[in-house]
Amino acid sequence: MDIWLVKKRSIDTFSYLKFxxxxxxxxxxxxxxxxxxxxxxxxxxxxxxxxxxxGYSGGHVSTVGGVVVTNLTTGxxxxxxxxxxxxxxxxxxxxxxxxxxxxxxxRVAGGLLLEHPLTLPFVEAxxxxxxxxMGLSKDVANKLIHEALTV
Length: 151
Fold this sequence. Notes:
The chain is an alpha+beta fold and about 150 residues long.
């Protein structure tokens, strides 16, 4: 499986699209985080990351992911959206600061790291699939790949 990261210009920010080559199909995915009605992509400053993470503390966020599968032989293209929600316990300030200092929060939409060892203990519940929260719903991708390859 070859993976390319390609920059795509969105309205106000740059997003990374993931391309996965699978036999004769290409899978593209993009995810954003929605918190209190505001769509967030990757934080660009420490203050923005801090604001995002403090906002999630004791609350919840939604993730919306888009998946598009293209059959490279026939040109058939299918897409779908997937939504998940993450509920958090209170996240201590020192954990937020450690995440920011590590810098990994700057590489993910909304600075949201469900699987990170510092974040995971503060996840109260996930509604939907954790792989959807991490950027690509396996179930949606598999369904679309099957449909795209079916002639």
